[in-house]
Amino acid sequence: MLRILLEQDEPGVCVTAAVIALSLLAVQCARRCYETYYLQVFAKSSKMNLSHYLVGIAHYFACIVAAVGQAPLFCGHQNREKIIWTDTRTTLVSVPCILIFLWACNEQYQTNIIFANLRKDKKTGKIVTEDHKIPNGRLFERVSSPHRMCEVILYTVLLILVPTKTFFCIYLWVLSNQIQTAIQAHEWYKKSFKDYPVNRAAIIPALL
């Protein structure tokens, strides 16, 4: 099945790179699941378009297929004696990639805490409003959408670990999607709040 989807008979990454990429994706998905159920404060009137929901499922499926499907034993490379378990490149980039990924993952989490606290009472922690307010602190001092900026960083790390054409296509999708929505959010903030900080960029500090 994977060979049909990827149209590739030779592995594009070593075993170690695929395992690290999958592990980092698992961390990201687990954190997002926790935030959705226990942290984020959604307006009662807010709804998700079914197409967006389906695209999200397809996206993570594609990420897993791109990582696993181009690893040894999953694309026709069955001889265990010839399997590339690791390589010099993966050895050099794995630790920096893991650290950067975890940093960006934590910054996304901190960003969502800030968003949630905007709708809660500071003393009791109870939800008191569903209104939008200007977020401040941490990476918000530089950009309007630090969670989107960190999302780009996360997938940049994954692309470094899994530098295949398939994952590059996924990366371009994430990059274009995050930049577009970040610009839209930035413009909305500026129109909705007259006192919105003028020094903030949309998603890339001092550039965009």
TrEMBL record:
Domain 3-oxo-5-alpha-steroid 4-dehydrogenase C-terminal span(s) in chain numbering: 95-207
GO molecular function, one term: polyprenol reductase activity
Membrane topology note: Multi-pass membrane protein
Catalytic activity annotation: a di-trans,poly-cis-dolichal + NADP(+) = a di-trans,poly-cis-polyprenal + NADPH + H(+)
InterPro entries: 3-oxo-5_a-steroid_4-DH_C, Dfg10/SRD5A3
Family listed: Belongs to the steroid 5-alpha reductase family. Polyprenal reductase subfamily.
Protein's recorded name: Polyprenal reductase
Originating species: Papilio xuthus (Asian swallowtail butterfly)
Lineage summary: Eukaryota, Metazoa, Ecdysozoa, Arthropoda, Hexapoda
